[in-house]
Amino acid sequence: MKHLKVVILITAAVWFFVSLTNISYAEQRAIVPKQIQNSVPSATTQAPATSTPAIKPLQQSLILQGSLPPIICPATVNTINDVIKLAQTDVPKAVQAYTNQGSIDFPGTSENVAGVYRSYVQDCCSPNKSFTVQDQKNAGCTNSDNVSLCMEKVIKHCISKYPQRSSLNGLLFQSVQKTNNVNAKITQLHDKINQLRNMIP
Known about the structure:
Blueprint: H1 2-39, H2 72-96, E1 99-100, E2 103-104, H3 114-124, H4 133-139, H5 147-160, H6 165-199
Helix pairs in contact: 2-6, 4-5
């Protein structure tokens, strides 16, 4: 009788252990598919949008793609264009407009014109030149003037009597106009060349 009870207890224990194992295995089978199902993304679920990282210097290549170029780019190119145009076209044209048989013609500046006037001035300023009392009066000298001041007046008066004074003045005025036109182009070229030099890194 005692052995029968022991057998019954052992049988009951084995049956209980087997039943418990089966239940645990069934629960695991039920959980695993559910976990797998949850881990598979739904066809209607959208993946989170990925944002393009900001480009930073010294970390990756820099490309000018789609962005405005730095101001140095158009500024330098435009300045180079200006220098080429002024130096190769505008200034030569301005000078050529005042040339005569290959040389620049500025009226009143040749030896035949200005040289003659120079000789006349040198004659008035000659150390051997003598000015009469009447010359001194005509020049505007007064009793209160010293010799140096009166001499300056008479020499200036002498020079003012140059016979071609009016025509020479007119010719030189034409040359002033011409040099102004050429100088404007030369000045532009001068400024642009300096600007381009300063823009070279």
